[in-house]
Known about the structure:
By secondary structure, the protein is an all-alpha fold. Helix content is about 65%, strand content about 0%.
Amino acid sequence: MRRPRLIRPMPAGLPFRHPAGLLATWFGAGLLRGAPGTWGSLAALPFAVLIVWAFGELGLLTAAGLAFVAGIWASAVVARRSGEEDSPAIVIDEVAGQWLALVPVALDLKYYALAFLLFRAADILKPWPANRADRLRGPVRGPVGVMLDDVFAGLYAGLAVWLIARAVGYESCFSASISVFH
């Protein structure tokens, strides 16, 4: 009896060591069997901690933007090489979205689990406009569409985690700047 493989193969036509393959699968997290989006989101967390430690909240926001741009390129390469427009192995979109969800509470690790759960819920449920971005056709659908629905999910989750954190008294640099306008 053969044991089930824990790791699925790379999308056809692309070696794992290719930079687009490494980024698109977030260093292999998207190749884990089961729920690749969840694995990608989990794999984003330790990187977020390191980015925040080195560069703060705005560094994480910048990294999310860079992941979005890199994700457009990487998912385009994977799609072109494999013939699969939105392979389940592509999880850099989850990385960008997860980092966006963490930005409002990036300085407090106790909120990371909440941000993770809220992002996964928003990514799976895809509230408007994420559901529209997921179904776009034409030039936006391709690699931009692959990335865009998770950006919306990250923004929704970030807003929700920020509201919850504010309700219990957490203040980030964003909270302080917003209170200036009251």
